[in-house]
Design brief:
106 residues; 0% helix; 42% strand; three-stranded antiparallel beta sheet; six-stranded mixed beta sheet; mainly beta
């Protein structure tokens, strides 16, 4: 069968990277970071780790070093809600973990 491979250049200090462009502007990278604990990283062009997947199954959103159990969500914004689960029907219910509480939004 057919296969598509993405490989690094073989030079020291390089990683296999898939880059996404909008017209001629680079927007996102998916990077197999072999030099840093074999992470798979989705990052913006400023180098911010937007999502990190570790070999052991841990996932980090907003962090390059997921800690604790399986999912680590991090934000530096003081008014940020790190996790919002919302149902948008007639009655909106919300689990808001930004302030470590569960509430109903009407």
């Amino acid at each position: 069968g057919s296969e598509m491979c993405i490989r690094d250049s073989g030079s020291t200090g390089t990683n296999a990277t898939l880059q996404f462009y909008e017209q001629s502007t680079q927007m996102w990278n998916i990077n197999a970071d072999g030099g840093d604990s074999d992470k798979l990283v989705i990052s913006d062009t400023a180098g911010n780790y937007n999502m990190t997947l570790l070999q052991g199954g841990k996932v980090g959103i907003g962090t390059g070093s997921p800690a604790g159990h399986g999912l680590h969500i991090s934000s530096s914004a003081s008014d940020s809600q790190n996790l919002v689960l919302q149902q948008t029907t007639n009655s909106e219910k919300c689990m808001d973990f930004g302030s470590f509480s569960i509430k109903t939004v009407n």
